[in-house]
Specification:
This protein has helices spanning 22-28, 38-55, 69-80, 94-105, 123-133, 156-161, 211-218, 231-238, 250-266, 268-289, 315-326, 353-367; strands at 11-12, 61-66, 86-91, 109-114, 137-141, 143-144, 149-150, 166-170, 189-191, 204-209, 304-308, 328-329, 331-332, 341-345. It folds into two domains: 8-17 and 268-367, Aspartate Aminotransferase, domain 1; 22-264, Aspartate Aminotransferase, domain 2. The longest helix is centred in the C-terminal third of the chain and has 22 residues, at 268-289. It has 368 residues and is α/β, with parallel strands linked by helices. The strands form four sheets. A seven-stranded mixed β-sheet has the order 2-10-9-8-5-3-4, with helices on both faces. It has a three-stranded antiparallel β-sheet with strand order 11-14-13, covered by helices on one side. The protein is globular. The chain contains twelve helices and 14 strands.
Length: 368
């Protein structure tokens, strides 16, 4: 049986996970303590403070759900949606579609506002649909990982709140790589994952709820359908009560604590600029290679770059050669872009000039 030490080292420049800094790996390897150990509970408080910093919020209900970013998505929906609720979802990629499906499974009456793949959601169309349907919840993906598109979030809450709705935002790919202003933008629930711009291994889902969202949660007429993701139970563990709910992934929280410390040392503004600079360097190199983006100009994510594969080229074969010959991972297209695009992630520890030069130099050689 092969061991973990036999696994190859890769430069992860796909849609996630991102490269993990040595400091985070070292924290992950620290000896495990109990999940109710006072020292560990103090570390959890530090994690909550760090998450409030990256979410730009003062929300008391801010924690890390045990699970990947998809667990954060499910937690946000199943806690805030009851059967029969009207939910409006913006869909212009895979993850908007997943939001709509989770809401349907929660029993919601779901309406979607759709946009072509590679294009952002239309703000005016969203606002017209909100006025028409008066939804209890409006859910949008800030950074659509499947298409490399950033969707409009700032300013949307005004239309949502005019009908007493809640605004839920998927920040899985954007958090810690570009501005996410939960309080300033009036977001009621936001969730993310640790494996993107936080450069932590996958396994935790940062989540924050506004006081309005908490009030909606407390007014539920039915129990939250997921016991494991029930925030009325989880907050008793993360809050002052420290009531046992489940055994937390202790070492993953060590890793997140260290990742958040790195973010704090760099500063959010500097971190956002580093991601932007890496994207600009990649854009210039792709232009030289004649590789266009499949995402609309002016709406491209800096940390997730969706690039058209050349006509007549087996894009999967190129990705496999990148992995086998150069040790570099990039992602393939999903949905409408399957077989037509590459997704190059420049996230967190991977948003560097060296990473850009490595992947574009390798592509230049292979495509030649």
């Amino acid at each position: 049986m092969p061991s973990v030490s036999d696994l190859p080292r890769r430069l992860c420049l796909g849609p996630g996970p991102s490269p993990v800094p040595p400091r985070v790996l070292a924290a992950l390897a620290h000896p495990t303590v109990g999940h109710l150990d006072p020292a560990f509970l103090a570390l959890m408080d530090d994690v909550r403070a760090g998450l409030r910093h990256v979410f730009a919020t003062t929300n008391p209900m801010t924690l890390a759900v045990s699970g990947t970013g998809s667990a954060g998505m499910e937690a946000a929906i199943v806690n805030l949606v009851e059967p029969g609720d009207r939910v409006l979802v913006g869909v212009n990629g895979v993850f908007g579609g997943r939001l709509a499906e989770v809401a349907r499974r929660a029993g919601a009456a779901v309406t979607t506002v759709d946009a072509p793949w590679g294009q952002p959601l239309d703000r005016e169309e969203l606002e017209r649909a909100i006025a028409r349907h008066a939804p209890h919840v409006v859910a949008v993906v800030h950074a659509e990982t499947s298409t490399g598109v950033v969707n409009p979030v700032a300013g949307l809450a005004e239309a949502v709140r005019a009908h007493d709705g809640l605004l839920v935002v998927d920040c899985v790919t954007s958090l810690a790589g570009m501005a996410v202003e939960v309080d300033a933008w009036g977001i009621d629930a936001a969730y993310s994952g640790t494996q993107k711009c936080l450069s932590c291994p996958p396994g935790l889902a940062p989540l924050t709820l506004s006081p309005r969202a908490v009030a909606r949660l407390e007014r539920r007429t039915r129990p939250v359908p997921s016991w494991y993701l029930d925030l009325t139970l989880l907050r008793s563990y993360w809050g002052d009560e420290r009531a046992y709910h489940h055994t937390a992934p202790i070492n993953m929280l060590y890793a997140l604590h260290e990742a958040l410390a790195i973010v704090g040392e760099e500063g959010l503004a500097a971190r956002f600029e580093r991601h932007r600079a890496a994207h600009d360097r990649l854009t210039a190199a792709l232009d030289d290679l004649g590789l266009p983006f499949v995402s609309a100009a002016g709406h491209r994510l800096p940390m997730l770059n969706a690039v058209a594969a050349p006509a007549g080229v087996d894009e999967a074969a190129v990705r496999r050669r990148l992995l086998d010959e150069r040790g570099i991972e990039i992602g393939g297209g999903l949905g409408a872009f399957k077989g037509r695009a590459w997704r190059i992630g420049l996230m967190g520890h991977g948003a560097t000039a060296e990473a850009v030069d490595a992947v574009t130099g390798a592509l230049r050689d292979l495509l030649a």
